[in-house]
Design brief:
- Pfam families: UbiA.
- Keywords: Cell membrane, Membrane, Transferase, Transmembrane, Transmembrane helix.
- By secondary structure, the chain is an all-alpha fold.
- It has one domain.
- Helices cover 71% and strands 1% of the residues.
- It contains 16 helices and two strands.
- It has a two-stranded antiparallel sheet.
- A hairpin with a 2-residue loop joins strand 1 and strand 2.
- Helix 3 runs antiparallel to helix 4, helix 10 runs antiparallel to helix 14 and helix 11 runs antiparallel to helix 13.
Length: 336
């Protein structure tokens, strides 16, 4: 038997290869965005009490986000297939587990279906969603950002901002089919008030920082780039902390809640801060990659923190529970 044949890495079965291609563990961070956005606008429409009175709409938004997020991961590997063939031949496409053509068709099909599901979700219940078309519109904007990042601008300085825009629109997607709109006398864009935009923007800026941090994760990173990434992550977290001061429709303006939210955000950031300091001081690939994994994991906690401030304990616990399937899947599939 040929020794070169026996030494080759075995090809993953199709189901496992597809899960790796989609970065399936990270999908639960996209769910956390949708859960947080949906629970927040539900609480606003029900005088501070979140509920699932529109479960089909909720499921449509989760499915739409899942499809678009997974499509983004698939197309990311499709457009990086030549680089991966050289540097990471075990990835699903260069390993031959999934063909490039299959990945391309699957990615764009999932973008289209995800956008249609979000659009149709607004018309499931007659007269429920205040702006029934908004889910489809936000999903379309999200899809455009996904394609622009993966196919055109990934190697440019605009790439981190596009990645942040993807997360920004994903939060807005969770809020898109709300039953009630903010008060008419408040400043709004497409029916989103400043508090909602600040929440989505904080998560978006945080992801811009994570993306800067990950720009050269496979090699020894520049401390300057890592420092910029850390600064932007801190800026995003700070934006989340000032949400109560800008919009009582999101969080009741109560000093106790404001300081409580800051306390939670500080505690949540301690573990991440430790990783960041280690990576900046010793910018080897392993330290940087561990920091990125911690930053992605922390997304769920930040979504849960805002949900806790708005909706109480139960719904924030639901979001935190997404950690369990995420951590379980990480044993089988990579997340970076």
């Amino acid at each position: 038997m040929d020794d070169s044949t026996t030494s080759q890495t075995p090809v993953d079965p199709a189901w496992l290869a597809f899960g790796k291609l989609c970065r399936l563990p990270n999908l639960f961070t996209a769910w956390a965005d949708i859960f947080a956005g949906f629970f927040i606008v539900s609480a606003f429409a029900n005088q501070g009490i979140a509920n699932l009175n529109a479960p089909v709409i909720f499921l449509c938004l989760v499915l739409a986000s899942s499809l678009i997020y997974s499509a983004g991961m698939i197309l990311n590997d499709y457009y990086d297939r030549d680089v991966d063939a050289r540097d990471r031949p075990d990835r699903p496409i260069p390993s031959g587990a999934i063909s490039a053509q299959t990945a391309l068709i699957a990615g764009f099909s999932m973008l289209v279906v995800g956008t249609l599901v979000a659009l149709l979700g607004g018309y499931v219940y007659v007269d429920y969603a205040a702006m029934p078309w908004r889910g489809g519109a936000i999903a379309a904007l999200l899809s455009v950002c996904v394609v622009a990042y993966d196919a055109v601008l990934k190697r440019t300085v605009l790439a981190p901002w596009l990645m942040g825009a993807c997360r920004f629109f994903n939060i807005l997607l969770g809020m898109s089919l709300s039953k009630e709109l903010p008060f008419s006398d408040s400043w709004q864009v497409l029916g989103y008030d400043i508090g909602q935009l600040l929440f989505a923007g904080g998560i978006g800026v945080y992801i811009v920082g994570v993306t800067w941090f990950a720009r050269t994760e496979a090699v020894v990173s520049s401390r300057g780039m890592l420092g910029l990434g850390a600064f932007l992550m801190l800026a995003g977290i700070s934006m989340l902390g000032i949400v109560p001061w800008f919009q009582p429709s999101i969080v009741d303006v109560d000093p106790a809640k404001s300081f409580g939210l800051w306390g939670i955000l500080v505690l949540l950031s301690l573990a991440l801060g430790r990783r960041v300091v280690i990576a900046v001081c010793y910018p080897e690939p392993r330290n940087v990659q561990l920091t990125i994994k911690q930053a992605i994991l922390s997304l769920i906690f930040y979504d849960a923190a805002i949900t806790l401030a708005v909706c109480g304990t139960i719904w924030s616990v639901v979001i935190v529970a997404l950690l369990f399937p995420m951590m379980g899947l990480r044993r089988w599939m990579y997340s970076t």
